[in-house]
Specification:
By secondary structure, the chain is of the alpha+beta class. Helices cover 15% and strands 13% of the residues. Among the domains are: 27 residues, no CATH class; 46 residues, no CATH class.
Amino acid sequence: MKRTLVYSLLSCTLLVSCTSSKRSATQYAPFPRESDSTGMEGIPPTPGEVIPGTTEVAPAPAPTPQPMPAATPAPKREARYGLQEAGKPGFMRSPYHPEAGLIDYRGLPPGQEVKDPYTPGKIILVP
């Protein structure tokens, strides 16, 4: 009950304060733009604003292209050529773990980098 009474008094106070004080709105002259007689000539209109004296809308400025940063070479990774398996074309062994199984590289060009499946993080070059 107390809460309802407080809310109703608060809303009445706000309503009375808003309606009792009549303030007059101050009118300002519009900001001078191009070809105004106020001496502010040469100021371009804001993009999207209607140009005074016409029905045209000022175009948005064209974005300036940003220069591309210089390409930094990738850090040189150490890669070794795979050991070609004798009598089995298209198969090689890992140079890091030669006793592991065979790696199938059929269809890959020579010099292609391949992840070593038996040594994590190592790269092998196709022979």
